[in-house]
């Protein structure tokens, strides 16, 4: 396999994001885990009228590859290094913070990590001005790089400019899509990844790793980043998941099962089903809705469910990493999507109401 081909294919352990970034395996309080050709279609309105009885969507459940990038670079760690004089230094200490987004150096836009490193090298030991965003507030901060023992100029920070992984497509309509049911967060900072662009791709599931004690199971798969496999463009990454519009490459196996959207008033305790392609084909699996929490501080945990379908329990042990976004259907309506699995009981998990996903 050539180097070029190798770069197009990546095997992900569950929802591995970036190098070892885990999209759906981020530990989140309460003992649960979070379970990207040319565009030929126009971008749809982001507004959905959930009360429109004529509005229908197709609940998908198919696996997708996800790739998103940020404008500039995100700081993941502030650290120290030994400079050319043999002194341990940290030029960015008390200046830059983990989670900052650096967008410019000396007023010039940064495109990516390579561009950042190139501009830093050209500046040498001159004082530079960093334009950065912290908690959505813009700051201008001055700092001076120092020469390291290898002769390069460094600030003492680790940075990233993209994240990738595997998730589940919740639904599509005529032109748009929604997926995941929760945000893509950076594993180092815990912050929602601030995206400038992104895309979703066809993905192929290769293996299911069942859960072990206090460790959720996960899906393992392959993403082909070839242009012809790009099926959508990501336009938003929010607490409710990612959304965007489809490309002409999308050829999902859409049948006649278009459904309406359920409001919070349509959801009730009792039987429902989720849709997933974990078996290699799109299938429905029964679950029970045990609890509805309208006051949940985390909206992606509005619905508490447990898997009752023996087929899914035998195959995966319940809910595994990579199933985030699996649509939840009750009484003929799409009411939500799977978002988390309980660490100590993989048959149980949380979901987000579709009403929240469409805000």
Description:
This protein has helices spanning about 5-10, 115-125, 310-315, 355; strands spanning about 10-15, 15, 20, 25-30, 30-35, 60, 65-80, 80, 90, 100-105, 110, 125-135, 135-145, 145, 155, 155-170, 175-180, 195-210, 220-225, 230-240, 240-245, 260, 270-275, 285-290, 305, 325-330, 335-340, 345-355. The chain is mainly beta. The chain folds into two domains: about 5-70 and about 165-355, no CATH class; about 80-155, PDZ domain (Pdz3 Domain, Roll), CATH 2.30.42. The strands form five sheets. A six-stranded antiparallel β-barrel has the order 7-16-17-21-20-18.
What's the arrangement of secondary structure elements?
Elements: H1 3-8, E1 9-13, E2 16-17, E3 21-22, E4 27-28, E5 32-34, E6 58-59, E7 63-78, E8 81-82, E9 88-89, E10 101-105, E11 108-109, H2 113-123, E12 127-134, E13 137-144, E14 146-147, E15 153-154, E16 157-172, E17 176-179, E18 197-209, E19 218-224, E20 230-238, E21 241-246, E22 260-261, E23 270-276, E24 283-292, E25 303-307, H3 310-316, E26 327-330, E27 333-342, E28 345-353, H4 354-357
Parallel strand pairs: 22-27
Antiparallel strand pairs: 1-19, 2-3, 4-5, 5-27, 6-16, 7-10, 7-16, 7-18, 8-9, 10-11, 10-12, 12-13, 14-15, 16-17, 17-21, 18-19, 18-20, 20-21, 23-24, 23-26, 24-25, 25-28, 26-27, 27-28
């Amino acid at each position: 396999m050539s180097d070029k081909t190798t770069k197009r294919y990546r095997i992900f352990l569950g929802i591995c994001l970036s190098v070892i970034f885990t999209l759906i395996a981020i530990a989140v309080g309460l003992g649960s885990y979070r379970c990207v050709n040319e565009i030929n279609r126009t971008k749809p309105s982001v507004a959905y009228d959930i009360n429109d009885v004529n509005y229908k969507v197709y609940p998908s459940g198919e696996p997708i590859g996800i790739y998103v990038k940020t404008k500039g670079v995100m700081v993941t760690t502030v650290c120290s290094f030994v400079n050319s004089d043999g002194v341990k230094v940290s030029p960015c200490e008390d200046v830059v913070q983990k989670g900052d987004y650096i967008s410019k150096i000396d007023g010039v836009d940064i495109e990516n990590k390579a561009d950042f490193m190139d501009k830093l090298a050209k500046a040498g030991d001159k004082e530079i001005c960093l334009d950065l965003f912290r908690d959505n507030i813009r700051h201008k901060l001055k700092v001076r790089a120092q020469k390291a023992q290898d002769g390069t100029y460094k600030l003492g920070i680790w940075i990233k400019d993209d994240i990738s992984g595997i998730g589940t497509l919740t639904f599509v309509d005529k032109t748009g899509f929604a997926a995941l049911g929760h945000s893509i967060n950076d594993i180092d900072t815990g912050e929602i990844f601030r995206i400038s662009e992104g895309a979703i791709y066809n993905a192929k599931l290769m293996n299911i790793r069942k859960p072990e004690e206090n460790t959720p199971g996960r899906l393992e798969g392959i993403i082909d980043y070839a242009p012809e496999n790009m099926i959508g463009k990501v336009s938003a990454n929010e607490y409710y998941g990612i959304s965007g519009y489809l490309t002409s490459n999308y050829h999902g196996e859409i049948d006649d099962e278009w459904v309406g959207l359920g409001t919070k008033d349509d959801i009730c305790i009792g039987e429902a089903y989720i849709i997933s392609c974990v078996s290699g084909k799109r299938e429905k699996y029964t679950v029970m809705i045990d609890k509805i929490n309208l006051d949940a501080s985390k909206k992606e945990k509005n619905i508490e469910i447990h898997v009752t379908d023996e087929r899914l329990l035998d195959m995966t042990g319940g809910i595994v990493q990579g199933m985030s976004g699996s649509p939840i259907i009750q009484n003929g309506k799409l009411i939500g999507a799977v978002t988390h699995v309980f660490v100590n009981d993989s048959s149980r998990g949380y979901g987000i109401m579709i009403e929240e996903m469409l805000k």
